[in-house]
Amino acid sequence: MEIDYAGLTTAFQDANTSDYSYWLNTQTGDVLIVDDWSEGEARQLASPYDTDNLTIRLAWCVLWQDGEIGVEEQEEEDERIVDALMESFIQVPQADTREGYNLMVDFAATVRDPHLRELLEVALDGRGAFRRFRDVLARYPDERERWFEFRDNQTRRQIDAWLEAVGVLGGSKRARNPPPRASDNSWAMRKVRILSSSSRSSTWARLSIASARSKARMKPGRRWIKCVDCP
Hints:
Layout: E1 2-3, H1 5-13, E2 21-25, E3 31-34, H2 36-42, H3 54-65, H4 75-86, E4 89-91, H5 97-108, H6 114-123, H7 129-138, H8 141-165, E5 174-175, E6 189-196, E7 202-208, E8 222-228
Parallel strand pairs: 1-5
Antiparallel strand pairs: 2-3, 2-4, 6-7, 6-8
Helix pairs in contact: 1-8, 2-3, 3-4, 6-7
């Protein structure tokens, strides 16, 4: 089985997952995202097998487990369906912002330029440290690239430790692709604000660049407004 390390790297580095979650398919190595869109589609189904879309099937099971959908007289049947499908999935742990912060501190300590090291130390002091850290490195492209490599190497070790802990990593498992560089958009997740022309209410969606599995799906009456936090 080939493990999608690019998708897992994105999942492990994404600390803004209040509206969606990442799941690893232990049979195929694919990483799926259960978000507002897939949950909305899942709510229309009486059973997860009413669709061929595996992401929507998974979303149905997640909602059922949370008690948000499911017909009472079908609970036993629903439980069997959920158990059978969920045997193939493990939820990827949510990124810990404290670990992300500590990683930036560790990187700053490796910077040889005294002036840049001082700038990073100042940037890491107080609220808004993540943004200030990125802003400082944006002026030093070589060190910025070194930061990406440093972060991805640390993330890869975290992923391998997790895969081993959950019993997925083994001699027959191999990486489908290496962890992506931050400048590589193959799995770069971008936040895009969507505005509803009918309700005038805004929500967040996820747009995965050049990823066939995670193509952005537009809904009627909505249009793209702007990209936020793009690398």
